[in-house]
Specification:
249 residues, alpha/beta, 44% helix
Amino acid sequence: MSQLNGKTALVTGGTSGIGLATAQRFAAEGAHVFITGRRQAQLDAAVAAIGSRVTGIRADVTVSEDMDRVFEAISARGGGLDVLFANAGGGEFGLLVDLTPEHVSDAFNRNVAGTVFTVQKALPVLNEGASILLAGSTAASNGTPAFSVYAASKAAIRSFGRTWAAELADRGIRVNTLIPGTTETPGLVDLFPDADAARTVIGGMAEGIPMKRVAHPSEIANAALFLASDQSSFMTGGEIFVDGGAEQI
């Protein structure tokens, strides 16, 4: 279990769901992992769950000063950064007729601007041959009602992955987009008014997936490890769908 032995990784939004599962997997594979989260209690719990080889920093990817502190801490540790998983983000349902400027700006600020400036601020500390993972979504490939703004923000991520892969190739830095399907995370469950509604809707989602179930965060983390490690050394500008076949079959 040493695919990332001696490497340094950053997982933004690493306090729950896919981010936490990925940070746990990276640490188990030998990396020292920096994680960010907006809430101190959740950050402390995540650090405890990961165990050794982790540094938690309270930070919001939409706040420039917060991210400056993150990269100052990485720089101060020495050794640079080998893996960046720009995972932080989120969204809410909203029909076209109900959309507000606040809804649109919040989604694009978190998912688009947050990703852009996380990657930009990482550039000075990224080592040659580093791996950048961007957090995509199957929502960018289909037409889910009431999810248009989130889907559009994730479509932008797919475009960034291709362009940045070309821009950073001369530094040997790889950029790939990880595209999870429906995954049972706190972020998904919280989209619904209560636990019963979440179970009902998520169960319905599972029926529409060829594998007839939703993903566990650890299954997405397995794919993240592949993209982070040398196992994907000849892959850049690409996308990996981990969706139970939902977008493929």
